[in-house]
Amino acid sequence: MQFKAAIEWSHCAHKHQNIDSTLEAYTTAFKLLPRISWLGLTIASRHHALLRYAIHLARNGAAASLLAGDLEQALEWLEQGRSVVWGQLLQLRSPIDDLYEINLDLAMRLSSVALALEKEGCKENSLMSASQSDAKISPEQAIQKNHQLADKWDSLVKCAQKLPGFEHFMLPKQFSELRQATFHCPVVVLNISIYRCDALIVESPSMPPHQVHLENLTYRKAQALQITLQKILSADGIRDRTEERHGESAFEDHSCANEVFRHLLAELWSSVVRPVLDCLKSCQAENGPFRICWCPTGPLMFLPIHAAGVYNADGLALVSLADIAISSYTPTLSALLNRSPQRDKKPAFKFLAVIQPNAPGGNPLPGTIEELKGLQKHVPTSSLQILKGPDATTTTVLSGMEECSWVHLACHGIQDVSDPMQSGLLLQDGRLKLSRIIQKHITHAEFVFLSACQTATGDERRPEEAIHLAAGMLVAGFKGVIGTTWSIRDNDAPFVADKVYGQLLKNGEPSGVHPAVALHEAVQELRKRSGPNFSSWVPFIYMGA
């Protein structure tokens, strides 16, 4: 009730243009947010609560901060109010080495409670899983036990915060820490609110953030672009390979869909990308593209910013972001932290290839066999583990992921619209669900290529939570992920995979080329081959550090 009152308060303060009152309302709401998405609830319950109460909180709060000229607070609130559940999982897994040195007993108790909370929270259905996992405990007792664990966690964290030097222990990250996310390249956070639309640019850890007001973009316009893209993909039959098309298509023919796609990319260029590039002119080198990481919000979560540009009818670009910059994406700034290449010890190169050409319940994927042939050209037999067809079960794949630092998954991908945590990869014995993948904490994980459909699509009802397979792989521990934003064509996947690994691997070992760069080059070649067919090359994206 207090949270809902704070949201209403913010609306009223916005309406009357009382900036001090607006900021006070949002400050109150953000203090209450941890209770809305309480750790004592299952992940599904937390997602439901965030959808019901806090879907616009982060973006609107950031807009208010920008009106007040406080860019750092805007970034902090966006971080605190987006990908909340992923952030909680990562927080439970955070190393607490410093605390072990100060108070061993407290650190051990915190670690124990964190492990138990993560296990309970990841259960798909608290009532069902509780009754099945332990017949001696009733569902009600299991729920009560989880609540007690959450209360114990809160109590232990407060004890730690009383220690000298631990005043900010487990509190939301401040900008001084978030700015370290630009270790690899500039990060552009695109805040799309009903009140205003802005790009927040963090170029490096040593520079203050810049703000670019996106004058030609509104929330409604961004929504309209998202709807347009959905119509294009449905008309092309690739928004979801399982959906049946009834009645007339939204477009008369394929060329008409491409024409609409061309206009959409031009609008993204003029409204979003060009103003950002104008601010980043110092990064643009004459000798080739520079790297840039996008962190979109709202409707822009579902739009191909990396492909923005002005294209001719034949698909050739007059000006294109892909010719200027190598784009990657991140769900939050925190997802880029603690992922620098300065690890104490590089894991041994072991490669898992999961090839599923004929999964029960799915259409045949003959292209996956070609993918395997391409992989075998680049990966030596001594480093390659293959799980193919009947051998590629949910259990064997998860075990293989725990053993190998690089993973390639060539199979059907499914974004579950009704319950996004049930999204997954279709294997021999069923679906390897997102809810199972995030339970893994693979410390040696390096890179995963999700050569499947809809692995970075997300849930349109909850854009800020990034509930898709690519983000789930980051939570599981992988530094970087290649994924797809919609269904991909069978012939395109082997082509892109072959080109990517041709750059990533030399003489059977990692070459040092960044996966974002390798994907960029591969997609550029696919782009030349595809001509005006934008839906062929646009869906491939890189996510992570």
UniProtKB/TrEMBL annotation:
A Pfam family of this chain: CHAT
Entry superkingdom: Eukaryota
Stretches assigned to the CHAT domain: 264-544
Matching InterPro entries: CHAT_dom
Name of the molecule in the record: CHAT domain-containing protein
Native species: Rickenella mellea
